[in-house]
Known about the structure:
- By secondary structure, the protein is mainly α.
- Helices cover 73% and strands 0% of the residues.
- α5 (82-121) runs antiparallel to α10 and α5 packs parallel to α13 (284-312).
- The longest helix has 40 residues, at 82-121.
- The radius of gyration is 25 Å and the shape is elongated.
Amino acid sequence: xxxxxxxxxxxxxxxxxxxxxxxxxSKMESQGMRIVGGNKIVEAYRELFxxxxxxxxxxxxxxxxxxxxxxxxxxxNFPSKIIDMILPSLPWTIGLLTVAxxxxxxxxxxxxxxxxxxxxxxxxQFFTNFIPVxxxxxxxxxYLMGMGLMFIFAYTLQMFPVRGSMSIGAELNFNLSTIxxxxxxxxxxxxxxxxxxxxxxALGMRGMMISTIGEDYLYLAEAKGIKERNIFWQYATRNAxxxxxxxxxxxxGTIVSGSVLVEIIFSYxxxxxxxxxxxxxxxxxxxxxxxxxxxxxxxxSVLILDLIYPLLDPRITLTEQ
Length: 321
């Protein structure tokens, strides 16, 4: 799978028309700069960035460098190394995704389980009215949710900033004021993912809980006199959430791709915003570097969830004696 991702990562940027080196020189000339010996500069730069030779030669060179974590230099920000541009952006993406994904998964599954439990027990029919709202949230993509939140809370009410991760001129320090500033700027991007995710997970969990409520082991637990809240958490919810964890593993890639668009909308300085700038400048090495890091992040997330899954369901660790 890694080789397939690397191959796609190589060929997709090259499907775009135009030459990135010539585009950079043309941009410099349009800004009034005088380029002497432009053809020689283009050839030298093409060799420096691995764009010379046949497409097959470029591919072999790219694969070799990628598996050595030699991502090369950025075309549009030369002589900056790509890894030096990615490392400052990576914590912002990881922090945003980790917090938003965990909160949306926990809150969404709790909401779905609670709605199904109350509806199945026919105690409070009022909660049934929340189901259409949950369905609406689950159908809205991350980026549309982000645009809506931006319009309401940033432009109309002016409660939150429109862009960025920190106040202008602020320094990144580990103190309370800086942390609160980061949370303040990251609220709308995070809620774009959380609100859409809550609807998605709530609908799935509600379906799992409805099928779980009629199981015999729940009636047996009630007959034994176990408290209802213990039945809800330890018997019903714990069993119903297992397919949801599997769905989370399967949807990590979708969540990451959605967060990329959210970062672009809010100009959030993560890998998504860096990739957007790279695409605008036809910076092949930077596009390939950011995409490669996103693929690695997704693979690592799936591995971590696979390792956690046996803790939730010990049955999958059993082997035949």
